[in-house]
Design brief:
The two termini are about 40 Å apart. The chain folds into two domains: about 190 residues, Rossmann fold; about 70 residues, no CATH class. A hairpin with a 2-residue loop joins strand 3 and strand 4. The strands form three sheets. A six-stranded mixed β-sheet has the order 8-9-10-5-11-12, with helices on both faces. The radius of gyration is 20 Å and the shape is globular. About 35% of the residues lie in helices and about 25% in strands. The chain is of the alpha/beta class.
Length: about 290
């Protein structure tokens, strides 16, 4: 997929609540609604008054300098951290009383800055771990290897291979996950997250460690994931070519607060963002 095709984005429109989402998601309830979300650590406000609405098939970016609070927001969305104030709705469900497991079951999957694969297990087995809540059989069936056991195992294998094929990794199914190159491990972590059948996929610096060719492939794969699975994607990324190339809406953080929201074109021309993050323009003669 070339750059021109990537930039053929859906028009962004105003939702009744005032949020801006892709036009194709109008008439559908948002997959994510954050309202006045915040958290304090020992009096330090790591995130303050964070508001965000994501359409059901939106690809959005969360950017900002190191330490701006981006990963903290991911931890709040997935209940790794409990917010000090504010609320998070996933597909209309309030997550206030939810645990990490509950949020996963509600349809949120994520990857991490630091890769968290089972290095000594095969590539396929890492993906099958993500399928655990979809293809089940009882202990009796497993112990005695009843026909249902073999049927479910076959389903798991086929589904895992189907997901690996999205990233052209099916031929690596038997390899140890820890033996893969760094970029391939990144891709495998995304595949495992997809195996949980999410409604919202959170990607924490997915292009980290990838070369330019791998990053180009990643951009195409994220679009393919959105279109094939009809899910929303929220990503944290420092690679501005990736962010500006595929994100429809962008939220910019600085010191735990939102300093700008908008389309890639609006963010690129926003003077506050340019000074805080994208780089202050040099004066003539400098």
């Amino acid at each position: 997929m070339n750059e021109d095709k990537r930039r053929q984005r859906t028009k962004m429109v105003t939702y009744p609540s005032g949020a801006v989402i892709p036009e194709r998601d109008l008439g559908k309830s948002p997959v994510l609604e954050c309202s006045h979300l915040g958290i304090e650590f020992g009096g330090l406000k790591a995130v303050e008054d964070f508001n965000l609405v994501l359409g059901r098939t939106e690809i959005a970016g969360l950017i900002g300098p190191n330490g701006a609070g981006k990963t903290t927001i991911f931890n709040l969305l997935t209940k790794v951290y409990q917010p000090t104030h504010g609320s998070v709705l996933i597909d209309g469900l309030d997550t206030q009383s939810m645990t990490v497991v509950d949020v996963s079951k509600a349809g949120v999957a994520r990857t991490f800055q630091n890769i968290r694969l089972f290095g000594n297990m095969s590539v396929e087995d890492n993906v099958r771990i993500g399928l655990h809540n979809q293809i089940k059989y009882d202990m009796f069936t497993g112990i005695f290897r009843l026909p249902r056991y073999f049927s479910r195992e076959k389903q798991q294998h086929e589904k895992a291979m189907e997901l690996l094929d999205i990233f052209n990794m099916a031929d690596l199914a038997d390899a140890k996950a820890g033996s893969l190159p760094y970029g391939a491990q990144r891709r495998l972590e995304i595949v495992r997250a997809l195996a949980t059948n999410p409604k919202l996929l959170l990607l924490d610096e997915p292009a980290a460690g990838m070369n330019p060719h791998e990053t180009e492939e990643l951009m195409d794969n994220i679009l393919r994931i959105r279109d094939s699975f009809q899910i929303a994607v929220l990503l944290i990324e420092h690679d501005m070519n990736l962010v500006m190339g595929i994100c429809e809406g962008i939220c910019v953080l600085n010191f735990g607060r939102v300093i700008a929201k908008g389309t890639p074109e609006e963010i690129q021309s926003n003077p506050v963002v340019i000074e805080a993050y994208l780089g202050k323009k040099k004066e003539a003669g400098q």
